[in-house]
Specification:
Blueprint lengths: L2 H31 L8 H33 L6 H27 L8 H47 L1
Helix pairs in contact: 1-2, 2-3, 3-4
Length: 163
Amino acid sequence: MGKLAVGALRAVLLVVLAGTVLVQALMVWTLVSGKDPEDGSLPLTALRVITIVGMVSVQVAVVCVGRLVTMVRRGTVFSHAAFRYVDGVIGAIVAAALVWFAVTIVNAPGQRDDPGVTVIMGGVGVAILGVALIVFVLRMLLAQAVARDAEALQLQAELAEVI
């Protein structure tokens, strides 16, 4: 992975992390201060809390991807330590899907005249879960690569003994 690509990805991850922290801080401030520009109705408050939780899932994914990029740069990504971060990304994506389903549930009563919106939102949640499944498949590929790497090291050690 080139230095330019790593630098660009790190910059994007940093901007996303800073943005999510800012959104969380503003949402928490609005909830705690009581200076809600809206009427503080239940759906709006629930959506703010859901947004705060959703930002946590994004932050977890960003940190895990950042750690994986560091491992790629160091050449240590094909190790068992990488699984912790890949599992973190999978968990964050599943959490994001659950947050999206919560948004769909909170939004559903307002869509009684047009239930198609709720169906579409449910479909988006299923698509988010599909992304988690894709990352899970990639995790299985990582597991195969780690196993092959370990096997190659064992064969090299045996060959070194013979020679």
